[in-house]
Structures are given as C-alpha cells and as structure tokens.
Amino acid sequence: MALSQSDLTRIALDITSGLSDHDRFARLLDTIRQTLHCDAAALLQFSGKQFTPLAIDGLSPDVLGRRFILSEHPRLEAIARAGDVVRFPADSELPDPYDGLIPHQEDHLMVHACIGLPLVADGALIGAVTIDGFDPEQFNRFSDKELRTLSAIASASLSNALLIEKLEKQAVQSQEPSSFNHSSDSEVEIIGQSPAMQAMQNELSVVASTDLNVLILGDTGTGKELVAKSIHSHSLRANKPLIYLNCAALPESVAESELFGHVKGAFTGAISHRSGKFEIADNGTLFLDEIGELPLSLQSKLLRVLQYGDLQKVGSDKSLKVDVRIIAATNKDLKQEVLAGRFRADLYHRLSVFPIVVPPLNEREGDVILLSGFFVERSREKLGLKSLSLSPDSINLLNNYDWPGNVRELEHVLRRAAVLSRAQSQSDIAVITPQHFDLPGQDSQEQLSLPTPHVELKTGSQINSGYSLKQATESFQAQYIRQALAANGNNWAATARALDLDSGNLHRLAKRIGLK
C-alpha cells in the first residue's frame, strides 16, 4: 500500500490531539500534503449550498476568505454529489476553483492531478478535502480504498470539531438550545480570525441569547450593522423581525412618528394610522444605528419605552405595551457626549448594559487578506468572471495599508480594482495588480505604470501624427513585449511574470496585436 498503517495512525493522532480547531485543521492539511506529496490541499466545510475553507496548504492566503458556491464551481459540485472519491481527468474541461490561486503558478493549471474527498457524517455531507498536484500522474499510486480511509479519518475529525463547537455555543448561549433558529437563512457570517475578532465573537456568544440591551461601538466602516445582525440571528428572537432605523437620517419633525407611530389626524398629512418602528419590532429586535445623533427631545421618550415597555403614538392618549430588545450603535464617544450635555446620562446607562467594541481593521492582524478573498470572490461572481485573483504584490500592498476607512473602504477598493482588472484583461480571467488600486500614499508608479523588465525601450524621436491613439498604443505594446520576450529567452511564461500579466492574457494580447 502506498499509504502505510503508520501513515494513517500518525494522521489520526495528529488531528485528535489537544489542539484548537484551527490548529487541528491546519495540522490535518499539512499531514495530508506530506503523506500524499501534493502541491496544494484544502479542507472545506459544507453549509448552505457552499463550501467554506477551514484550512489551506499551498494556496494563496486569500482563499481562506472565499466562499465557493456550488453552482459557480462545477468541480466542487461534482465532489458534493459524488459520495465517494472523485478523480478528475488530468485534461478535465471543468474549471478548477483554485485557478490563479496557487502561488508562483501564473499559468492556469489546465493539466494537473486533482482529487476530491467528500466528508460525510451520519449520511450527510459536511465538507470535503481537495488535493492538487502539478504532475498529471501524481496520485496514481494511491488506491481509492486508501483515499477512502483518509477521507473517513478527516470526516471524523471535522464532525467532532463541529459537534464540540455546537455544544460550546449552546452551553454559553442558552439552557434551551431548541428555541434557537439555526437555519442557514438566519445565520450571519462575520469573517475574521484575528485575536481581536475572536475576543469580540466570544462577547457576541455571551450576550446573544440574553435580552440585554447592547451598545455597539466602533469607527465608521468597521461592520457594526453586521454585528447587530449576528446578535439577533443567534438570539431567542431570531424568528422575529430585526427592524433597522438610522437615527442620523431622521428629520426631527418626523422622528417621533417614525419611532412610535401616529394616529390619523395627529398632524397635517397624517391621513391614516401608522405603526412606528417599536410596534413593528414587537417581540423582536430594534437596531438603532447612529444613536448618538438622536435629538435630545426624543431621548426622554425613548428612555420611557426602555424603562416601562409602553409608548404613546403621536396624537393618541392611549398607551401601547411592547416587548422590544434594543441594539444601538454609534461611532461617537457617548461618554463625552454625556459630559457635553448632548446625550442623556440615564439613557446612555440603559443602552450600554453590554457594550461591544468592534475593532478597527488595522488592529485585526491577518484579517485583511481573509476579507479580501471574500470580496474578490463576490466580485468575481457579479462580474461573471471564470477566475479573479490577487497578485502577490497586491496582497503585500493590501497588508501594508492602514485602512482608515476600515472594512467598508477595503470592500470599495477591491470592487473598483476588480472592475479595472476585468476591463484590462478583456477575457473571463483577470488578475488584480497594484496598478488597479488608488490608495492614498501609494507609489504613483504602482498605479500608472506596468512593471518594467530589465531592458531599454528604444523609441523614435518623432511622433507619427498619422497614428490613432489605439494604433500607437498597440505599436508600443508590441515593441514592449518583444523586448521583454527577448530578455526572457523567448519564454512566454517568464515574460508574463516580468510584465505582471496573467499568461493567458498575454497570449491573447500578443495574438490581437499581431505578435503571434
């Protein structure tokens, strides 16, 4: 057997040792890669018609942040449906989900060895292990029986880890776990593995199942609304509505009606009865975003609802009982607002029973690339691209930037870069490079110029005014590529690397401008 009993025993001992889930999964992938001598491997969890990477080895770090929807990735869909070891032909026409995502392999892997191991527990698919090798015959010596044994060990490890995680959450959250709604539709995923985010996630687990009011603090763009959604989705009120209200967007003239509702004839224009946000959120959760902007005149009325659970609609003398959990958010320092007289101290104490601070992105070590992978994969889907990847220089640039606009800035920067990358590639395969970013303090050469190979570009002393801009551009590109090709020994793959271009895109460009 190519896989010895000692190999399997070592794998089993490695993944059942006293490690955290993250370390155990990483150890599993490392062991599989060493045992099978593969060039890349990934452990994926299956949930909600998509695969989520739990650990990777030999792949670009942003893969951990990507979410692979089955309908978008035929190979992964084939693994999910197979129920057994899947060996893809070396020349399979099914696109590889990791195209462009294996470091130092700029050429897309059209011919390579690829195996998928579905992970099953109690008859249900819970995940998969994918194994890739650059040699088409790399895994021929391993039998399906051996790979099934490996799959069974990995299935047991993943199943146990998921069970432990579920039990830990139930122990922290509630003594009545059956009352929780854990459907995939209600789950909200917060992406981040940094210590700061893990600490925040622990706080969310503690407070979610209680009925305590929560005050979410954090800079603009850190994801406070997502935190509010996560608290609600893991609460006892998850099957009830989460109602959103932006206090900063409320004109003071209609704010009271928006919060508490009004009766017909209460004021000019009140042509019918209207329910306010509190009434709509009854038995559910009301998320008051930008609570620091709420006018002082309304703060006392809000306080009464929090204290006694009753409200009066505008124009009515009747009280209405409501049962609403409040989650508030602000980027202001409410303690300072209280001292300045712009926010009521008693309301502040009512709201901040359980404060949660969302850390800024520049304090979330390692999370930038996870988030980048998530946003790039989302952009790939929206733009209809077969492959969209980040170049190594792009990853370095993203890691070294300070992100004053936090996650929101990162998302917008990557959306723009994805659009520019697609426009430049003129195909369904695109690579985001530093020139596609426009970040304050970024070297202008990175934004505007292609990387220059170690050759001199010889140009004429006169401009031919008979050329159109397109003709002149193509003439320059042809001369530039010729000299880069000569400098790299007529090796197209090396030339693509020197020009920081995807190899397939370079071939298409060369053909279009007459070099091939």
Structure report:
The chain has helices at 5-16, 21-36, 74-82, 144-173, 195-208, 224-233, 252-260, 277-280, 296-308, 334-339, 345-351, 367-383, 392-400, 406-425, 444-448, 469-487, 492-498, 503-512; strands at 40-47, 50-57, 68-69, 86-88, 113-121, 124-133, 214-217, 242-246, 261-262, 274-275, 285-289, 310-312, 319-321, 325-330, 354-357, 387-390, 429-432. The protein has 516 residues and is α/β, with parallel strands linked by helices. The chain has a six-stranded antiparallel sheet with strand order 3-2-1-6-5-4, with helices on both faces. The chain has a five-stranded parallel sheet with strand order 8-11-14-7-15. The protein has a two-stranded antiparallel ribbon with strand order 9-10. The two termini are 48 Å apart.
